[in-house]
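Quick one: structure for this chain?
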Amino acid sequence: MKAFLMLCICSLLLSGCWSSRELNELAITVAVGIDKAEDGIIVTVQLINPGDIQAKTPTNGPSVTTFSIKASSVMEGLRKITTKSPRKIYLSHLRMLVISESMAEEGIAEVLDFFARDHEVRTDYFVVVAKNTKASSVLNVLTTIEKIPANHMFASLDVSQRIWAPTRGVKLNELISNLTSEGKQAVLSGVLVKGNVKNAGDMSSISRTNLSTLLNFKGLGVFQNDKLIGWFNEDESKGYNYITGNVKSTLIVIPCEKKKKSMILSE
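Got it. Here's what it folds into:
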């Protein structure tokens, strides 16, 4: 009887894969965009197209798909978007969180609260502000070199902050720390859509050497508490990064005699 009871107790620890989720049931989300709406927000997700990524030979289709939906909160939007997506939104591989300029001016605390509390979301992704455009427009731009646009943005911002001082990659934990620390304010890099916004999601936009639409990081958005209040230009952004000790490598141009310029590599 004792042996039987011990076996019963041990069997309770052998839960197996009761909470497992198959990969073909999930929509791998690599970027989320948040735009302001009249009576709520617009949530946009950039999802990986598994058929294109897994294909042994290149296909003529895009590597990602975007869906947008209006909701009263981020959680509602991510769940409601399943009315368009055939799979459940899965955020564990998130690379970029893009917040529109108008949304950032209203305050980002509520948006960040969801991403900070969700147990499935890691904190190793960059948060940026869509400057002079919508977050959905940023996520609709297709890219070259890196087939997945979110990976393109992440890599571009990561490289540029290491070798070109005016940019700054800020991840969620650092952003929340800056927003909640006394005597400290946050900054976020701005991302621009340059070129033809309407055709940014067409494959034709990346089928040429001279791209018609580009994503460009430019300037640091300055926050007071959780609200965007203005922008640093390139020189001011570089100065901020020097002051805060975030410059790893950059190039400095100084004037010389006879109207010439000299460049100094700062490491």
